[in-house]
Amino acid sequence: MSRSESIHMKILADLFKILIILATIGRSSWAAMSGSYCKEMGSRTYRPHSVTVTEFGAVGDGVTLNTKAFQNALFYLHSFADKGGAQLFVPAGKWLTGSFSLISHLTLSLDKDAVIIGSTDSSNWPVIDPLPSYGRGRELPGPRHQSLIHGSNLTDVIITGGNGTIDGQGSIWWDWFNNHTLNYTRPHLIELMYSTGVVISNLTFINSPFWAIHPVYCSQVLIQNVTILAPPDSPNTDGIDPDSSNNVCIEDCYINTGDDVIVIKSGWDEYGISFAHPSTNISIRRIVGEAHSGAGIAFGSEMSGGISNVQAEDISLFNSLYGIRIKTSPGRGGYVQYIHISNVVMTNIKTAIGITGLYGEHPDENYDPNALPTVDMITIEGIEGTNIKHAGLLEGIEGANFSNICLSNVHLNVTSKSPWKCSYVQGFSNLVDPESCEPLRDPYQVSTCYAANHIDHCNLVQIV
Ligand SMILES: *[C@@H]1O[C@H](CO)[C@@H](O)[C@H](O)[C@H]1NC(C)=O
Ligand SMILES: *[C@@H]1O[C@H](CO)[C@@H](O)[C@H](O)[C@H]1NC(C)=O
Ligand SMILES: *[C@@H]1O[C@H](CO)[C@@H](O)[C@H](O)[C@H]1NC(C)=O
Ligand SMILES: *[C@@H]1O[C@H](CO)[C@@H](O)[C@H](O)[C@H]1NC(C)=O
Ligand SMILES: *[C@@H]1O[C@H](CO)[C@@H](O)[C@H](O)[C@H]1NC(C)=O
Ligand SMILES: *[C@@H]1O[C@H](CO)[C@@H](O)[C@H](O)[C@H]1NC(C)=O
Ligand SMILES: *[C@@H]1O[C@H](CO)[C@@H](O)[C@H](O)[C@H]1NC(C)=O
Ligand SMILES: *[C@@H]1O[C@H](CO)[C@@H](O)[C@H](O)[C@H]1NC(C)=O
Ligand SMILES: *[C@@H]1O[C@H](CO)[C@@H](O)[C@H](O)[C@H]1NC(C)=O
């Protein structure tokens, strides 16, 4: 290509970007006009019938096991499902319980001084089938423990409170994990499967045995104003893991855990490929997080059903191993594409942007090593970082370059002498300091950068 041809290409590329931005402005004003459903959710849903868990024999002394009381209350409330639904209220007190399952058209509401406490006896956490998109428990082959608060095939479920607490007493599970005495994969605090119209708001979650909040095969999910806490050294205590789910809004949360703050997934290798349930249409905004041995905003490593159309904005991250992270591996198949991350402030982060195609970890020996994942159309813009060691470690897959990785307005105060390391990636960068690696700034590279379509899923998540 001659010099004048390449300049011509560059002008065309710039023109294309401007067109995208213009299209974006048009659409975002339309989205804004549609109003925010997020804000109205909690207050809008009135349940004509309400019971208190003490009416079913629960004792809030922190010692009595209340599993039966929760189960009986929920069984009783079944009959109100077609009459506008019902509320189960948990008053002030310490409510020890094993796992229980929710019903449709339900509000589970905690008093501000209510604490639901998970039993430390693993036999109070029944064992259920592995997820079809994982083919086995995530930690151990075979089935897995059911989450403390569980739900399957539900519609219209609200879990809320005036900042009441759900405490998983996870430390015994972390010990069992660390000393290799688990019999099955550890449970979550909340897992909802195949459910639509889910609100989780105004609550604090502490010491989850494993990932805290796990919506899987769900749609129309709003997670708002929750606090999630676990110690820095607690293993795999991710905050929120939307998995094979669509139309998800996560906003106004403070999450400080041992592993990823928010991580989007969609199934594992051959099981995820054949189950083929993507995660798509996800908005994440106004999150403050610390992910001591994980990442602030992460994708994968299980992504075999595909992940697309994710926006994250207005994020503050502290004291983490990674800021933004994409993890995948040969064998995963699937894709991570149309991702837009903007306005992130990072402080004391080892690697600001970590993208790897060599994560490893397979469910069994039957994965297809030729099933290469696609990582494409990833835009990261408006990043400010202080006390960062590495700006970016970006390793794609030989024969399946990660493409259209675009960085714009990235300013990192970096301590490492070689701030960027890149292999098998291609893309574009603009106003990046320290200057990005060569594959992301080839003047002859005509990259198409993904300009978020700014369809705000927080405005579109519509419950009921
Ligand atoms: C959370 O609490 C605030 C303040 O009490 C309330 O206005 C809001 O509706 C609640 N949100 C939900 C989703 O219940
Ligand atoms: C829940 O929904 C899934 C997907 O539609 C279905 O395969 C499964 O059988 C349902 N489970 C129950 C208990 O109804
Ligand atoms: C968040 O929850 C707290 C405590 O329940 C409440 O005071 C506050 O208004 C809530 N904020 C939002 C945005 O819902
Ligand atoms: C909720 O409670 C947690 C734990 O006590 C606290 O850290 C957090 O600030 C509270 N959140 C709100 C919004 O009041
Ligand atoms: C493993 O941890 C559990 C929970 O703390 C403890 O009861 C058990 O004795 C430990 N087992 C071994 C082999 O260290
Ligand atoms: C594992 O199974 C054994 C045998 O049933 C049981 O004694 C032990 O408590 C179980 N361990 C855990 C962590 O559930
Ligand atoms: C994702 O959002 C777009 C735009 O609102 C919509 O057209 C599409 O149907 C959504 N996808 C799913 C799976 O809901
Ligand atoms: C960047 O780091 C250097 C050395 O630690 C420090 O002196 C400087 O103030 C930092 N700049 C910013 C903007 O944080
Ligand atoms: C893959 O990316 C590298 C730069 O990281 C580049 O040199 C190589 O030509 C690319 N391969 C293909 C097939 O585009």
From TrEMBL:
User: SUPFAM superfamilies, from UniProt?
Assistant: Pectin lyase-like
Query: Which biological process annotations from GO are given for this protein?
Result: carbohydrate metabolic process
Question: Looking at the keywords, is Nucleotide-binding present?
Answer: no
Q: Where is the signal peptide?
A: 1-31
Which SMART domains does the entry mention? PbH1
- Gene Ontology molecular function: polygalacturonase activity
* Keywords of this entry: Glycosidase, Hydrolase, Signal
Its domain of life reads: Eukaryota
Pfam families cross-referenced by the UniProt entry: Glyco_hydro_28 (PF00295)
> Which InterPro entries did the record assign?
GH28_Enzymes (IPR051801), Glyco_hydro_28 (IPR000743), PbH1 (IPR006626), Pectin_lyas_fold (IPR012334), Pectin_lyase_fold/virulence (IPR011050)
Q: Which family does it belong to?
A: Belongs to the glycosyl hydrolase 28 family.
User: What is the protein's given name?
Assistant: Polygalacturonase
Query: Which organism is the protein's source?
Result: Canna indica
